[in-house]
Amino acid sequence: MKQEPDIKVGILSASEIQVNLLKEYDHAATATASRGPQTFSVTPDGMVAWQGVCHESVLLTPAEAEASFEVYDVTIGVNFHWERRETQRFRGALKIIVENGLLTLINILPAEEYLKSVISSEMSATASPEFLKAHAVISRSWLLAQLAKNKRIADNKEDYSAMTVTDDEVIRWYDREDHVNFDVCADDHCQRYQGITRQTTKAVREAVDATRGLVLTDKDGELCDARFSKCCGGVFEQFETCWEPKHYHYLEARRDSADENDYPDLTVEDNARKWILSSPDAYCNTDDKAILSQVLNNYDQETADFYRWSVEYTQEELSQLIKKRSGIDFGLIKALEPVERGTSGRLIRLRIAGTLRTMTIGKELEIRRTLSNSHLYSSAFVVETGKADSNGVPSSFKLIGAGWGHGVGLCQIGAAVMGAHGCDFREILFHYFIGASLSEAY
After folding, report:
1. Alpha carbon of residue 345 to chain centroid
2. C-alpha pair distances (Å), 221 with each of 85, 135, 153, 224
3. pLDDT at res. 80
């Protein structure tokens, strides 16, 4: 059986990084130990300046198991509606490198310790035991699947691209493959990881320990790329809608309810419109504050309208927003036209028609970031326009949407409801990951 791997987590990048070593940390390169406040800065020639000396990189390892360090001004929720800065505390080793002219701080620690923080960072650590176990399994599965993918790309020297651009179309997806000097980042781009800032509870430790090494595998025995989002909106999305054009049999459409196969074909525009404008029964269609408080950390609870939501823009607001976010001047916006939808009703491709230019954009996250100063809750939306002038230019746009996040894999709110209703972690996992199995990775 394989050993538990160490994970390299990118915490933040900046021209200067301030750290407080709360216990002694060893610097093997100089055979010295350090403690207390430390300042790292990048030199003009791309070196790490620390303690009056320039280094290519700096690796500090804890002198004792319980040693920890604080990092100041860590941004969480990058570009999302709840973005903010925090001082965060971490265990394990820290490494400072230079990449793209900035310093990057990397935290290095065992996979299971990383997972205990992820489970507490992604949701409230007071969630039900079975939901916590389910999340431990999918977070571990996703993590190890990404490590395997990294190795494959490196070994095969693959030229991996996450976008296609033509004169009239921009299709881009955002995955973790742009991390080349560490395994995963600490934000929603990968999995939320906030060290021991989110104090891990006994329940989280027990959930991770009870499932130690357990992962989801597909029918061929391969690790499942186990994705998750806050709220699917009633029906699951497929992997290829959001990321590379690859189909996984365990990430397919299914209704988020006991009647798993009772849902319309939401790739059809009329069906998607009716679905989004209604509020169908689903596990994730809940306003139970007790359950929601288990799933949502305090900053996530600032969002109350996740199952169905709306946002409105004046013509001036929308045209300026799209220009700023896309870098393309469409002129005045005449229409936002659905081109292609996925199995949950999420838009894969959206045509933006303006007085100066018309282009199609995708995939879902590109659509969400283009139509919001942060990110729209999801790309499952329909558009209602205000009165148009003589040139066919509407005065306003209202986007009415469903769900929060990409909708692929486990729906965190739906899974929390299942846990609250007495489902065990296996039932939860096999509801969201169709035909998957549980295996031991180590």
Report:
1. 20
2. 41, 20, 20, 9
3. 45
**What are the tokens at 382?**
């329909």
- The pLDDT confidence band at residue 71, using thresholds 50, 70 and 90, is very high
Residue matched to tokens 């310093």: 103
- Report how far residue 104's alpha carbon sits from residue 270's, in angstroms, rounded to the nearest whole number: 47
- The residue type found at 86 is E
Please state the φ and ψ torsions of residue 411, each to the nearest 5 degrees.
-95, 110
The structure's pTM equals: 0.89
Could you please report the per-residue DSSP string of 167-181? TTEEEE---GGG--S
**Proportion of the chain above pLDDT 90, given as a percent:** 74
Tokens 């190890």 identify what position? Answer: 144
CA separation for the pair 307, 377 (Å, rounded): 10
**Which residues, other chains included, contact 365 with Cβ-Cβ below 8 Å and sequence gap of 6+?**
173, 174, 242, 375, 379, 406
Write phi, then psi, for 126 (nearest 5 degrees): -95, 10
Q: How far is residue 355's CA from residue 76's CA, in Å, rounded to a whole number?
A: 37
- Contact of 227 with 239, CB cutoff 8 Å: yes
The closest of 191, 210, 256, 188 to 415, measured between CA atoms, is 256
The separation between the first and the last C-alpha atoms of the chain, rounded to the nearest angstrom, is 5
Structure tokens at 158: 């693959």
Task: Give the C-alpha separation, 240 to 159, whole Å.
Answer: 19
Tokens of 252: 């397919």
